[in-house]
């Protein structure tokens, strides 16, 4: 069961919108409280003005403090269409002079400066201001004015401020969200186009993806995909070529074996059946060699050799062992197989198994095409580039054919020898692995050919 992963579009929207919305929300809250604070100050100043107006009517006559403001004037001063306003006048000795004696008092008052605080009157929240009235010409208070009003106007103003601040912010958040979403959509549109282009492709379409219109950050990814597709195309091409080569080369031998088997099934003479079996054995041997060479060719393709690890190899000792292995085959054709080596090791960097396979193919080619009673000589030379030369007495290869003989399945016409045309192609592939070069020239005595394999000299040599 696969777990769903969040889309890049969703992540981008989250990374952009969540901090932005949080920032705008904080801004809205701060703006609300700042505006509310200024509005509170405005209403507090109005409340303080009422307290000061009342203080003007506090007088001291003959040592007695009195509040001299008629009832009609009080009603006019305290009239408010939205809130109920309370007041209280209390002498310094605590005697209640006028107003509502239920109003609370501030814990501490400063002479001449109003003190604001919040309280409850009749279980209703009120804003209260308290102001001391000093004696004329002095600082000692003779009375205290307390004015309170309910908070209807303040609550209404708070709601208005909230709406006037929050609504534009919400609208701004919505517009910003749409802009961010549109920007993310536009930014990811090339990726959607790229996805659709890949989805529409056939599994056999390995052309490079177009890089036009792709954002710079995504181009390395597209280049990596194109490089992968190029390598995959090359690998599949090699695979298809191998399959085609194998099918082409196996078709004829298998058809021949099938025909011979059909003849053997109808044969009743034991002697003829034995002869047919012998021919069948030779055919199976050829088929086995062909399969072996096809597999070797596939194993030595350039793309299949990235894991090959080269190591120090004594080329002189390797060639001596390889030459000795081919002595029985040379004796079958009465060929003089000689070896001229060095009296010291000649070390190169290589893969011993593949190097033996390279020289096996060259020696097989030399012995196969040399005349009976001929000569094949293997020479190891320590020159600027360590070189192995194989001289044979086979038919001279024309100059115009010397490049083509290393192609797969290419054979010289009129050679008269059996072969698949793969041996030299395999040798060429192995030489490339070792950064070596195979060259072909006429033999020094003018008869036959000389195949030379020159290796790069490394620190190991």
Question: If strands are numbered along the chain, what order do they take across the biggest sheet?
Answer: 4-3-7-6-5
CATH class of the largest domain: Alpha Beta
Number of strand elements = 14
Structural class: alpha+beta
Major beta-sheet overview: 5 strands, antiparallel
Helical coverage, percent range: 40-55%
- Which sequence of SSEs, written as H and E, runs from N to C? HEEHEEEEEHHHEHHEEHEEHEE
Shape: rod-shaped
Q: What gap, in angstroms, lies between the N and C termini?
A: 58 Å
Give the total of domains: 3
Q: Report the uncertain regions.
A: 413-417
The fraction of residues in strands falls at 15-25%
**CATH domain topology of the largest domain:** Beta-Lactamase
What CATH architecture of the largest domain would you give?
2-Layer Sandwich
Residue-averaged pLDDT: 79
Question: Radius of gyration, Cα only, in angstroms?
Answer: 54 Å
Number of helices: 9
Word description of this protein:
The chain has 461 residues and is an alpha+beta fold. It has 3 domains: 8-159, Beta-Lactamase (2-Layer Sandwich), CATH 3.30.450; 219-299, Helix Hairpins, CATH 1.10.287; 309-454, Heat Shock Protein 90, CATH 3.30.565.10. It is built from 9 helices and 14 strands. It has a 5-stranded antiparallel beta sheet, covered by helices on one side. The two termini are 58 Å apart. Residues 185-237 form the HAMP domain.
Task: Tell me the layout of helices and strands.
Elements: H1 8-55, E1 58-61, E2 64-67, H2 71-78, E3 85-91, E4 96-99, E5 115-121, E6 124-134, E7 141-150, H3 152-200, H4 219-266, H5 270-299, E8 311-314, H6 315-325, H7 327-332, E9 336-340, E10 347-350, H8 352-369, E11 375-381, E12 387-391, H9 423-433, E13 437-442, E14 449-454
Helix pairs in contact: 1-3, 4-5, 6-8, 8-9
């Amino acid at each position: 069961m696969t777990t769903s992963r969040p889309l890049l579009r969703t992540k981008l929207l989250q990374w952009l919108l969540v901090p932005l919305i949080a920032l705008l929300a904080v801004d809205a809250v701060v703006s609300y409280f700042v505006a509310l604070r200024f509005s509170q100050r405005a209403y507090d100043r109005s409340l303080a003005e009422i307290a000061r107006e009342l203080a003007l009517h506090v007088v001291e006559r003959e040592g007695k403090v009195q509040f001299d403001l008629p009832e009609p004037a009080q009603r006019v001063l305290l009239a408010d269409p939205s809130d109920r306003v309370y007041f209280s006048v209390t002498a310094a000795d605590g005697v209640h002079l006028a107003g509502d004696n239920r109003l609370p008092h501030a814990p501490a008052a400063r002479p001449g400066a109003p003190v604001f605080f919040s309280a409850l009157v009749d279980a209703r929240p009120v804003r209260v201001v308290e102001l001391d009235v000093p004696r004329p010409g002095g600082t000692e208070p003779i009375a205290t004015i307390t004015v309170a009003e309910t908070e209807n106007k303040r609550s209404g103003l708070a709601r208005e401020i909230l709406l006037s601040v929050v609504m534009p912010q919400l609208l701004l958040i919505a517009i910003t969200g749409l802009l961010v979403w549109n920007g993310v959509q536009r930014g990811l549109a090339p990726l959607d186009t790229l996805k659709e282009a890949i989805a529409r492709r056939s599994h056999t379409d390995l052309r490079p993806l177009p890089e036009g219109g792709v954002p710079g950050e995504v181009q390395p990814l597209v280049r990596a995909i194109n490089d992968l597709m190029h390598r995959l195309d090359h690998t599949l091409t090699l695979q298809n070529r191998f399959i085609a080569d194998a099918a082409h080369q196996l078709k004829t031998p298998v058809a021949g074996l099938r025909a011979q088997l059909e003849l053997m099934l109808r044969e009743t003479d034991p002697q003829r059946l034995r002869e047919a079996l012998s021919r069948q054995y030779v055919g199976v041997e050829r088929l086995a060699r062909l399969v072996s060479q096809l597999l070797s060719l596939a194993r030595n393709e350039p793309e299949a050799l990235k894991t090959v690890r080269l190591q120090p190899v004594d080329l002189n000792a390797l060639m001596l062992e390889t030459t000795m292995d081919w002595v029985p085959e040379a004796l079958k054709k009465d060929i003089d197989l000689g070896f001229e080596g060095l009296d010291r090791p000649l070390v190169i960097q290589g893969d011993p198994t593949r190097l033996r396979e390279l020289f096996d193919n060259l020696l097989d080619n030399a012995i196969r095409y040399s005349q009976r009673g001929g000569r094949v000589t293997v020479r190891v030379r320590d020159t600027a580039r360590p070189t192995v030369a194989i001289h044979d007495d086979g038919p001279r290869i024309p100059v115009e054919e010397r490049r083509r003989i290393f192609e797969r399945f290419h054979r010289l016409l009129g050679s008269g020898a059996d072969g698949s045309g793969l041996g030299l192609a395999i040798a060429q592939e192995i030489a490339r692995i070792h950064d070596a070069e195979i060259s072909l020239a006429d033999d020094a005595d003018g008869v036959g050919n000389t195949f030379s394999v020159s290796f790069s000299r490394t620190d190991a040599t």
